[in-house]
Amino acid sequence: xxxxxxxxxxxxxxxxxxxxxxxxxxxxxxxxxxxxxxxxxxxxxxxxxxxxxxxxxxxxxxxxxxxxxxxxxxxxxxxxxxxxxxxxxxxxxxxxxxxxxxxxxxxxxxxxxxx
Amino acid sequence: xxxxxxxxxxxxxxxxxxxxxxxxxxxxxxxxxxxxxxxxxxxxxxxxxxxxxxxxxxxxxxxxxxxxxxxxxxxxxxxxxxxxxxxxxxxxxxxxxxxxxxxxxxxxxxxxx
Lengths: 115, 113
Hints:
- By secondary structure, chain A is mainly β.
- Chain A contains no helices and twelve strands.
- The termini of chain A are far apart.
- Chain B starts with a strand and ends with a strand.
- In chain B, 36% of the residues are buried.
- In chain B, strands 2, 4, 5, 6, 9, 10 and 11 form a seven-stranded mixed β-sheet that branches. A four-stranded antiparallel β-sheet of chain B has the order 1-3-8-7, with no helix packed on it.
- At the A-B interface, strand 5, strand 6, strand 10 and strand 11 of A face strand 4, strand 5, strand 9 and strand 10 of B.
């Protein structure tokens, strides 16, 4: 079974608008972390934001925020005031806390920001 | 601050050839990973290591081998290259703490013809 599901293959947004990229996850481990990465067309992987399973508040980093709904097992990325440079592939990933944990990625969402 | 360094950036291999993708990190991270990314897809874990001398298979290990003789280096060996191994390969590293992000190398674009 997929551990990370990103159901939106592509999203379009106009410049300066907000956009939400969906991510749901599946784990039975009570301790886990959720990560979002950005991959621009140049190919590098850029870390954006982290949310821990025990964090009481939603994570924020500048224009990025994470809408964390633990009971629904969702960790949606919200980008406010979109910019042209936000056009990229976005990946949600999870790392479980128990044992030797590795980072598991979703299939990604391609975001295109139009002027 | 080098972070994670992968070489080469690009490589074309003929079917049946072998090669080693090099990866080194200077952050003293315990964990290192190799992922492959096929076009339009997410990253799939090939192998990982939790410390020098310890490696384990990920989701797609067939056709690959790894070793971890030092904390810094985690080379990925392709034996008998096949067209199905055409992909972009990423090396990454992280500390053992679950709430810290993984740092990625720039990637290696490999084509097997």
